[in-house]
Design goal:
With 79 residues, the chain is mostly helical. It has 2 helices and no strands. Helix 1 packs antiparallel against helix 2 (45-78). The protein is elongated. The two termini are 16 Å apart.
Amino acid sequence: MKALCIAGLRLVGGVLIVAAVLQWATFDYPDINPFAPGAILAAGMLSQLFNWILVCLLGTTGVVLIGFGRSWRQQKRGR
């Protein structure tokens, strides 16, 4: 059961990192951008700031989840 949780953490973390990269790469193309702010933030510096905050949150969350999976796996081996 613990191995399944570790695999799930690593999978979700990887998906979040891929989502962060796609968000960063598609910022200039709002038609295919998965998290486009739409009419709330017009294209400009505020929209770019919002995009970078979102990219950092997605990427950091993904890296932290993968790190939790690795540390949990190492704890399992230590016992």
